Amino acid sequence: MLKTKILITLLLTLLHVWFGLASAQTQMNKIVAIINQGVLLKSDLDEQVKLMYQRIPLKQRQSIPIKKIQKRVLERMVTTELQLQIARRSGYTVPSSEIDASIGRLAKANKVSPKAFMKLLKKDNVNLDLFKKTIREQLLIQHVQAGYVHHSVKVSEQEVNNFLKILEQSQDNPSSEYHLGHILISVPEGATPSEINNAQLKAQEIVEKLNNGAKFSTLSITLSDANNALEGGDLGWQKLAQMSPILSPYIRKMHKGDVSQPIQSPSGFHIVKLYDSRGPKKLMSTKTHVRHILIKINALITDQVARDRLLNLRSRIKNGENFEALARAHSEDRGSAIKGGSLGWVQPGALVPAFETAMNDLAINEIGIPVQSQFGWHLIQVLGREDQDNTQLIREAQARRQIQQRKSKQAINTWLTKLRDEAYIEYRIEF
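and the corresponding structure tokens:
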């Protein structure tokens, strides 16, 4: 009888422990949002919030409620998931070599080797698998945005000339840069006068807090509706052409450390802080002699097929076959194919960003791994580089790139808003 009681007690204890673990596991795997046919889990949200908190300086963490972080991180995860769903439907893939190359660029920016960079992340308790997954998702999103937005952004010669003329009249130099912080208090489309007034009052209160010593990044994380709120509102160094035309006239008049009054636009009220500014340096142009082989994507040629074809061609060239002959036979850029793939000597800003970034990372005579742009997949070889002082061409290229970046940012924001409006989104968590 005693043994029976002991067995029953032990069984009940085990069941209690099992149900407790199951309950904890269920809580971790609780769905926090449904996005079309996809879901986001509480465990994923918690991991992303943890990563976000690691990026916030220790002194600021206590003044930022966890609920504020959760809400903003979840909003970003929803936007990310919508774009990843497009990537999955379109069959986009990111080879490990691209992820490694991205990590290499981050390591280079931190002046360490890729191996040392990963060790630093591990030392800071960063989940390396999640870190690589995040990079992979960012690359996929870049492909999606390139396909849906960037190809539609055009910059005319007239726009470049008008921009340079405005700079000459205002005595600004297109190479002058401004380090900015940005907070947005948004207003909904078709907002009532009362909603607009409340947003303006909220923005004014933020300005007063900033003038009384509050930290800009803390208020951005907790109050801003801008896309970069979780980065503390830091826009980094920008040239005037990269900024919204609504903000640039105010920034021209600001001095280091100034905080603007609320600036109204159709999207809401903007608050800008000028952290610093720096004047132009001597403008040197680096022309690059480059050639390529292009494989385009269509109903029969997927990303993977195009990339594999170029990898095969790369191997053949490395084994002694002639680049020019292979370009004439295989490249779908017919304009350059008849010249053996040669694009001649190109100035900075003359090529699409994805191509130019990959080109600039190559040594002379090096053949890079295939890279994707909005035109398809490219196999690139750099044949030479030449530096020259060519200020006017550089300024035109800078102006074109800055205008393109500004217009692309506006187009992406408009597209993302439409994407969210047309999606089914259901939240299952309260903040």
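(Above: one complete record from the training split.) The first helix runs from residue 2 to 28.
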